[in-house]
Amino acid sequence: MNGWLLAIVQTGLLIAAAPFLAGWVKWVKCRLQSRQGPPPWQPYRDLHRLFGKEVVVAAVASPIFRSAPYLIFSVTALACSVVPLVAIGLPTTAIADVIVLVGFFALGRFFLALAGMDIGTSFGGMGASREMTIASLAEPAMLLGVFTLAMTVHSTNLASMISYLLENPFQLYPSFVFAAMGMVLVAVAETGRIPIDNPATHLELTMVHEAMILEYSGRHLALMEWAAMLKLMIYSVLLVNLFCPWGLVVDYTPPALLQGLLVVTVKVLLLGTILAFAETALAKMRLFRVPQYLALAFILCLLGILSHVILEVN
Amino acid sequence: MPLNFALLAVLAAIASGLLPLACAKSNRAIKLLAFPLLGLAGLCGIIGGGLALLSGTSHRLILPVGLPWLHTHLLLDPLSGFFMVLVGLVTLVTAVYGPAYVREYERGPQPLLPLTVFTGLFIVGMDLVLLAADAFTFMIGWELMSVSAYLLVTYQHQHERNRSAAFIYLLMSHIGALLILLGYGVLAGFADSFDFARMAAAQLPLGWGSAAFLLALVGFGLKAGLVPLHVWLPEAHPAAPSHVSALMSGVMLKVAVYGFIRFTFDLLGNPHWSWGLIVLFIGSISAILGVLYALMQHDLKRLLAYHSVENIGIIYIGLGLSLIFAGTGHPALAALGLIAALYHCLNHALFKSLLFFGAGVILQQSREHDLEKMGGLIRRMPVTAGCFLVGCISISALPPFNGFVSEWLTFQAALQSSVLSNNILGALIPVAAAVLALTGALAAACFVKVFGVCFLGLPRSERAAAACETTLGPRLGQIFLALLCLLFGVLPTWTVAQLENIARLFFSSGMPEATAHGWLWLTPVSSEVASYGAPLVLLGIALAWLLTWLWLHPRRRRFPVRIGPAWDCGFGPLNARMQYTATAFTMPIRRIFRPVWPITEEHQAPSAENPGGRYRLRVGDWAWLKIYQPIGRLLLGSARRLAMIQGGNIRAYLAYSFFTLLFLLLVVSL
Amino acid sequence: MTALYLTLLIPLAATLCFAVIGHWKQAGTLNLLVCLATFGTSLQCAVEVFNHGALLSPGKLFYVDAFNVYLLLLNAFVGLTTAVFSRSYMAHEVEIGRVDDARMRLYHSMYQGFLLTMLVALTTNNLGLLWVAIEGATLATVLLVSLYRTPESIEAGWKYFILCGVGIAQALFGTVLIYFAAERVLPGTDDALLWSVLKQHAGELEPTVLTLAFVFLLVGYGTKIGLVPLHNWLPDAHSEGPTPMSAILSGLLLNIALYAVVRYKMLIEPALGNHLPGYLMMGFGMLSFTVASILLHRQKDVKRMFSYSSIEHMGLMTFAFGIGGPLATFGALLHMIVHSLTKSAIFVTVGHAAHVAGTQSIDKIRGLIRTQPAIGWSLLFGTIAIAGFPPFGVFTSEFLLFTATMKSWPWLVFPLLFGLGVAFAGLFRHLQPMVFGEPPAGQLPVKANMLPVLLHLLLVLLLGIAIPDVLSRWLDQATIMVVGKGLL
Amino acid sequence: MALTQLSLAEQLVLTLAALILFTSFLLLAQNRIVSLIHTFAWQGVLLFVTTCLMAANSGRHHLFISAGLTLALKVFFIPWQLRRLVIKLDIRRDVEVVGGPSLVMIAGGVLVLFSYYVVLPIRELSFLASRNTIAISLAVILIGMLMIITRRKAVAQVIGFMSLENGLFFAAVVATYGMPMVVELGIAFDVLVAAILFGIFFFQLRSGIGSLDVDHLNRLHEVDR
Question: Closest-CA residue in chain C for D172?
Answer without folding.
Answer: C176
